[in-house]
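To: structure subgroup
Subject: Chain for Friday's discussion

All,

I'm putting the inputs and outputs inline so they're searchable in the archive.
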Amino acid sequence: MSLCIAVNNPEKFVIIGGDGRITKASEIVSDSHKKLTKLTNHVSMFCSGVQDYCEMLRSLVAKQVNESTPIEQIAKIVERESLRVHQQFLMEYPTYYDLIPDGACLATVLAFYDLDKGESGIIQYCHRNGFEPHITVGSEMSARGIGQDKALIYLPKHFNPQNPIESVLNMYRIIGEEEESVGGDISIHVISEVGTKEYVLEVTK
Protein backbone atom coordinates (compact mmCIF):
# COMPACT_ATOMS: atom_id res chain seq x y z
CA MET A 1 0.00 0.00 0.00
CA SER A 2 1.19 3.48 -0.79
CA LEU A 3 0.66 6.86 0.89
CA CYS A 4 -2.17 9.30 0.21
CA ILE A 5 -2.12 12.76 1.75
CA ALA A 6 -5.18 15.00 1.59
CA VAL A 7 -5.66 18.50 2.99
CA ASN A 8 -9.02 20.29 2.95
CA ASN A 9 -9.32 24.07 3.23
CA PRO A 10 -13.11 24.42 3.64
CA GLU A 11 -15.00 26.19 0.85
CA LYS A 12 -11.72 27.13 -0.88
CA PHE A 13 -9.78 24.10 -2.09
CA VAL A 14 -8.71 20.55 -1.34
CA ILE A 15 -5.30 19.02 -2.08
CA ILE A 16 -4.80 15.31 -2.66
CA GLY A 17 -1.47 13.63 -3.36
CA GLY A 18 -0.20 10.17 -4.18
CA ASP A 19 3.15 8.61 -4.99
CA GLY A 20 3.97 6.45 -7.99
CA ARG A 21 5.89 3.58 -6.42
CA ILE A 22 4.82 -0.04 -6.67
CA THR A 23 6.77 -2.71 -4.78
CA LYS A 24 6.56 -6.48 -4.83
CA ALA A 25 8.37 -8.53 -2.19
CA SER A 26 10.38 -5.41 -1.24
CA GLU A 27 11.47 -4.93 -4.86
CA ILE A 28 10.58 -1.70 -6.68
CA VAL A 29 8.50 -2.59 -9.73
CA SER A 30 7.58 0.93 -10.84
CA ASP A 31 8.13 4.53 -9.77
CA SER A 32 5.60 6.09 -12.13
CA HIS A 33 2.33 4.27 -11.54
CA LYS A 34 -0.79 6.41 -11.64
CA LYS A 35 -2.67 5.99 -8.35
CA LEU A 36 -4.35 9.40 -8.48
CA THR A 37 -7.08 9.80 -11.11
CA LYS A 38 -9.04 12.86 -12.17
CA LEU A 39 -12.62 11.55 -12.42
CA THR A 40 -14.13 14.93 -13.31
CA ASN A 41 -12.86 18.50 -13.32
CA HIS A 42 -13.86 18.72 -9.64
CA VAL A 43 -13.35 15.17 -8.32
CA SER A 44 -10.16 13.09 -8.01
CA MET A 45 -9.74 9.55 -6.70
CA PHE A 46 -6.71 7.94 -5.07
CA CYS A 47 -6.64 4.16 -4.89
CA SER A 48 -3.86 1.90 -3.66
CA GLY A 49 -3.56 -1.57 -2.17
CA VAL A 50 -3.54 -4.75 -4.26
CA GLN A 51 -2.86 -3.04 -7.54
CA ASP A 52 -4.85 -5.22 -9.97
CA TYR A 53 -7.98 -4.69 -7.90
CA CYS A 54 -7.30 -0.97 -7.57
CA GLU A 55 -7.20 -0.77 -11.36
CA MET A 56 -10.43 -2.73 -11.56
CA LEU A 57 -12.12 -0.29 -9.18
CA ARG A 58 -10.73 2.72 -11.03
CA SER A 59 -12.07 1.41 -14.35
CA LEU A 60 -15.52 0.56 -12.98
CA VAL A 61 -15.94 3.98 -11.38
CA ALA A 62 -14.61 5.99 -14.32
CA LYS A 63 -17.10 4.33 -16.69
CA GLN A 64 -20.03 5.54 -14.55
CA VAL A 65 -18.94 9.12 -13.88
CA ASN A 66 -19.08 12.24 -16.02
CA GLU A 67 -18.94 16.00 -15.45
CA SER A 68 -22.63 16.17 -14.50
CA THR A 69 -22.53 13.37 -11.90
CA PRO A 70 -23.17 14.83 -8.39
CA ILE A 71 -20.55 14.10 -5.74
CA GLU A 72 -23.15 12.24 -3.63
CA GLN A 73 -23.75 9.86 -6.53
CA ILE A 74 -20.02 9.42 -7.17
CA ALA A 75 -19.56 8.56 -3.49
CA LYS A 76 -22.21 5.85 -3.74
CA ILE A 77 -20.74 4.48 -6.96
CA VAL A 78 -17.34 4.12 -5.28
CA GLU A 79 -18.98 2.42 -2.28
CA ARG A 80 -20.93 -0.04 -4.45
CA GLU A 81 -18.06 -0.91 -6.76
CA SER A 82 -15.59 -1.20 -3.86
CA LEU A 83 -17.83 -3.83 -2.28
CA ARG A 84 -18.04 -5.69 -5.57
CA VAL A 85 -14.28 -5.64 -6.17
CA HIS A 86 -13.53 -6.55 -2.56
CA GLN A 87 -15.89 -9.52 -2.66
CA GLN A 88 -14.17 -10.79 -5.79
CA PHE A 89 -10.80 -10.34 -4.11
CA LEU A 90 -11.92 -12.36 -1.06
CA MET A 91 -13.16 -15.16 -3.31
CA GLU A 92 -9.75 -15.34 -4.98
CA TYR A 93 -7.65 -14.74 -1.84
CA PRO A 94 -9.78 -15.97 1.09
CA THR A 95 -6.88 -16.09 3.59
CA TYR A 96 -5.42 -12.65 2.77
CA TYR A 97 -6.55 -10.93 5.99
CA ASP A 98 -5.51 -13.93 8.08
CA LEU A 99 -1.99 -13.57 6.73
CA ILE A 100 -1.96 -9.74 6.57
CA PRO A 101 -4.48 -8.53 9.19
CA ASP A 102 -3.45 -4.87 8.80
CA GLY A 103 -3.48 -5.02 5.01
CA ALA A 104 -6.09 -3.65 2.63
CA CYS A 105 -7.09 -4.72 -0.83
CA LEU A 106 -8.37 -1.20 -1.49
CA ALA A 107 -7.37 2.08 0.17
CA THR A 108 -9.47 4.74 -1.50
CA VAL A 109 -9.87 8.49 -0.99
CA LEU A 110 -11.91 11.01 -2.98
CA ALA A 111 -11.22 14.74 -3.01
CA PHE A 112 -13.85 17.08 -4.40
CA TYR A 113 -15.22 20.56 -4.81
CA ASP A 114 -19.03 20.66 -4.89
CA LEU A 115 -20.07 23.56 -7.12
CA ASP A 116 -23.71 23.38 -6.00
CA LYS A 117 -22.82 23.73 -2.32
CA GLY A 118 -19.67 25.78 -2.72
CA GLU A 119 -17.67 23.44 -0.51
CA SER A 120 -14.61 21.23 -0.77
CA GLY A 121 -14.09 17.94 1.01
CA ILE A 122 -12.56 14.51 1.41
CA ILE A 123 -14.29 11.11 1.32
CA GLN A 124 -12.50 8.06 2.74
CA TYR A 125 -13.37 4.37 2.43
CA CYS A 126 -12.36 1.33 4.47
CA HIS A 127 -13.22 -2.36 4.09
CA ARG A 128 -13.72 -2.64 7.85
CA ASN A 129 -17.02 -0.72 7.68
CA GLY A 130 -18.19 -2.04 4.33
CA PHE A 131 -16.74 0.91 2.38
CA GLU A 132 -19.31 3.29 3.80
CA PRO A 133 -18.27 6.81 2.70
CA HIS A 134 -16.72 8.89 5.49
CA ILE A 135 -17.19 12.49 4.34
CA THR A 136 -15.35 15.52 5.75
CA VAL A 137 -16.06 19.07 4.58
CA GLY A 138 -14.41 20.82 7.52
CA SER A 139 -10.75 21.63 7.97
CA GLU A 140 -8.88 18.34 7.68
CA MET A 141 -5.42 16.86 7.17
CA SER A 142 -5.65 13.19 6.30
CA ALA A 143 -3.11 10.46 5.52
CA ARG A 144 -3.76 6.86 4.50
CA GLY A 145 -1.22 4.12 3.95
CA ILE A 146 2.44 3.58 4.75
CA GLY A 147 3.82 6.26 7.06
CA GLN A 148 0.39 7.72 7.80
CA ASP A 149 0.96 8.03 11.55
CA LYS A 150 4.13 10.06 11.10
CA ALA A 151 2.50 12.19 8.42
CA LEU A 152 -0.41 13.03 10.70
CA ILE A 153 1.98 14.12 13.46
CA TYR A 154 4.42 16.06 11.29
CA LEU A 155 2.16 17.73 8.71
CA PRO A 156 -0.06 19.85 11.02
CA LYS A 157 3.04 21.24 12.76
CA HIS A 158 4.89 22.12 9.55
CA PHE A 159 2.11 22.93 7.10
CA ASN A 160 2.58 26.31 5.42
CA PRO A 161 -0.77 27.67 4.17
CA GLN A 162 1.15 30.09 1.96
CA ASN A 163 2.83 27.18 0.18
CA PRO A 164 0.58 24.13 0.65
CA ILE A 165 1.91 22.13 -2.30
CA GLU A 166 5.49 22.31 -1.09
CA SER A 167 4.31 21.32 2.40
CA VAL A 168 2.75 18.14 0.99
CA LEU A 169 5.82 17.40 -1.17
CA ASN A 170 8.08 17.77 1.86
CA MET A 171 5.98 15.20 3.69
CA TYR A 172 6.48 12.70 0.86
CA ARG A 173 10.23 13.35 0.89
CA ILE A 174 10.43 12.71 4.63
CA ILE A 175 8.37 9.52 4.55
CA GLY A 176 10.21 8.30 1.44
CA GLU A 177 13.54 8.56 3.22
CA GLU A 178 12.30 6.11 5.87
CA GLU A 179 9.90 3.90 3.90
CA GLU A 180 11.19 2.24 0.74
CA SER A 181 7.63 1.50 -0.40
CA VAL A 182 6.85 5.24 -0.68
CA GLY A 183 8.44 7.26 -3.45
CA GLY A 184 8.74 7.72 -7.17
CA ASP A 185 6.72 10.32 -9.01
CA ILE A 186 4.54 12.42 -6.69
CA SER A 187 1.22 13.54 -8.18
CA ILE A 188 -0.78 16.32 -6.57
CA HIS A 189 -4.24 17.62 -7.51
CA VAL A 190 -5.50 20.95 -6.21
CA ILE A 191 -9.28 21.12 -6.62
CA SER A 192 -11.20 24.39 -6.27
CA GLU A 193 -14.19 26.16 -7.76
CA VAL A 194 -12.30 26.74 -11.03
CA GLY A 195 -11.44 23.04 -11.43
CA THR A 196 -8.40 20.81 -10.92
CA LYS A 197 -4.77 21.82 -11.29
CA GLU A 198 -2.42 18.88 -11.63
CA TYR A 199 1.22 18.82 -10.55
CA VAL A 200 3.73 16.00 -10.95
CA LEU A 201 7.18 15.86 -9.37
CA GLU A 202 9.02 13.17 -11.31
CA VAL A 203 11.56 11.01 -9.55
CA THR A 204 15.19 11.80 -10.30
CA LYS A 205 16.68 8.93 -12.27
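Points worth raising on Friday:
Residues 71-92 form the longest helix (22 residues).
The chain has a mean pLDDT of 93.

D.
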